[in-house]
Design goal:
Largest sheet: 10 strands, mixed
Shape: globular
Distance between the termini: 25 Å
Number of domains: 2
Structural class: alpha/beta
Strand content: 15-25%
Number of helices: 9
CATH architecture of the largest domain: Alpha-Beta Complex
CATH superfamily of the largest domain: DHBP synthase
Helix content: 25-40%
Bound molecules: threonylcarbamoyladenylate, magnesium ion
Order of helices and strands: EHEEHEHHEEHEHEEEHEEEHEH
């Protein structure tokens, strides 16, 4: 049975206790809901992969209540500290070499010499993480191959009966996963665009290598080759016209003639668009299939700010299908 826990003192205490006992608790962050487990326990982490039905062991992000707790696990650098000061708590994940006293399990790190750390924003996740008292591994709380959940109901639809509890802190504000930045190399590498934009990072980092630098040699996280966000209906990008047989994922002024339309943001606001992306894909896929539509067409989106993260998710949703 999966318990739905309210985000009050009792609910947070119960969620934290479950994690300490090796259980699985989905928890809301500012980005998406994470499927939390004690990151220091191989057994608890193995339950995450089983519940998600993940065919491969991808490395997981460990979540902490504050920067000091996070940096205790890694080899810290001045740049990492500067980034933490600028963006934590918030939607940035840093990949750094394991520290001497690192307690994160090998399974959570997929055997890599680096670990991914993050301090999410929000009163509820921070209290939950502080009370848990251990690093909390947390991939998105969805079955493998499905869209990331941005509220507790999405989590239950996908994982009910497979996890111990969901700590319901309401809908997620950002609605897209965190930015993943690899700081274990000479020049920082953007592994996944996300809630903190490349422009924002550059203010602190200077040079950053990112996928669009070399289209062919795009650096990817180990877990990023597969499409994670696949709707059942085929998705095509950069649509400049749309047919009545298609659902339209619009941005700005919607193209006329679609069978069904979801506008990410009529005013062309990228933040609004990011927060409405997964809900839009769910809607167009579910309702589109009910109505017998044959595909989804997405209008072009600006390649700046959060647009990079939105396009990254759309490309992956449109890409070859395999689970992640
Ligand atoms: O916003 C988020 O980041 C959400 C919330 C719950 O925090 N979590 C999330 O986790 O999106 P997940 O497992 O879906 O994505 C983790 C990403 C993957 O692309 C993985 O390959 C990368 O982080 N990653 C984790 N550890 C890594 C490492 N040591 N080196 C390189 N990439 C790593
Ligand atoms: Mg995911």
């Amino acid at each position: 049975m999966t318990e739905l826990l309210r985000a009050d003192d009792a609910g947070i205490a119960q969620a934290a206790a479950l994690v300490r006992q090796g259980g699985l608790v989905a928890f809301g962050t500012e980005t998406v809901y994470g499927l939390g487990a004690d990151a220091t326990s191989d057994a608890a982490v193995a339950r995450i992969f089983a519940a998600k039905g993940r065919p491969r062991f991808n490395p997981l992000i460990s979540h902490f209540p504050d920067a000091d707790a996070a940096f205790a696990q890694v080899v810290e650098t001045p740049l990492a500290r500067a980034l933490a000061d600028a963006f934590w708590p918030g939607p940035l994940t840093m990949v750094l070499p394991r520290g001497e006293n690192c307690t994160i399990s090998d399974l959570a790190a997929a055997g890599l010499p680096t670990v991914a750390i993050r301090v999410p924003r929000g009163d509820v996740p921070q209290r939950f993480l502080r009370e848990a008292g251990v690093p909390v591994a947390g991939p998105s709380a969805n079955r493998s191959g499905l869209i990331s959940p941005s509220n507790a109901y999405h989590v239950l639809r996908s994982l009910e009966g497979r996890i111990d509890a969901v700590l319901d802190s309401g809908p997620c504000a950002v609605g897209l996963e965190s930015t993943v930045l690899d700081l274990s190399r000479t020049v920082p590498v953007l592994l996944r665009p996300g809630g903190v934009t490349l422009e924002e990072l550059r203010h602190v980092c200077g040079r950053i290598v990112h996928p669009d630098d070399h289209e062919d040699a795009a650096p990817v996280s180990p877990g990023r080759l597969a499409s994670h966000y696949a709707p059942d209906l085929p998705l095509r990008l950069e649509a400049h016209e749309v047919s009545p047989q298609e659902g339209l994922l619009a941005f700005g002024r919607a193209l006329p003639g679609a069978g069904l339309t979801w506008n990410l943001s009529e005013s062309g606001d990228l933040e609004e668009a990011a927060s409405r992306l997964y809900a839009g894909l769910r809607f167009l896929d579910g309702e589109g299939r009910r109505r017998g539509l044959t595909g989804i067409a997405a209008q072009p989106i600006a390649r700046t700010g959060l647009g990079l993260a939105i396009l990254d998710r759309l490309r992956r949703a449109a890409g070859p299908r395999s689970a992640g």
